[in-house]
């Protein structure tokens, strides 16, 4: 997803936030969505996926929220700060929950460790973007 910055560099208007931070947020959101999708799939492939139902559900919820948020944050023309902020807050909430759940499986499943780390990075950059918006 290295095109986020390149695309923002071509935008004909000014941004309300730092373009570098915006690009990092877009890239982190897309990465987190993909990582969560892959983690859910890996959990389903474990020998006994039933105890991982909550993890799988949170992975899929996180992937959906991050995907939607990345798309909304990518559109800057006449954006509504209240909508963007609400989605970023939802992302923070779901990334936090998914990160916590995956952390609980970290010792036994490397895919959950990778996912937890991705969720933590995404949560942080979403917080930074909200702070820059105010």
Structural features, described:
By secondary structure, the protein is an all-alpha fold. 77% of the residues lie in helices and 0% in strands. The chain is built from 5 helices and no strands. The chain has helices at 3-9, 19-45, 53-74, 81-103, 110-133. The radius of gyration is 15 Å and the shape is elongated.
Short synopsis of the structure:
With 134 residues, the chain is mainly alpha-helical.
What is the end-to-end distance? Answer: 27 Å
Question: How many strands, which pairing sense, and closed or not: the largest β-sheet?
Answer: none
Give the tally of structural domains. Answer: 1
Principal-axes geometry comes out as elongated
The string of secondary-structure elements, in order, is HHHHH
CATH architecture: Up-down Bundle
Structural class: mainly alpha
Short descriptors:
Substrate Binding Domain Of Dnak, Chain:A, Domain 2, 134 residues, single chain, mainly alpha
SSE layout and pairings?
Blueprint: H1 3-9, H2 19-45, H3 53-74, H4 81-103, H5 110-133
Helix pairs in contact: 1-2, 2-3, 2-5, 3-4, 4-5
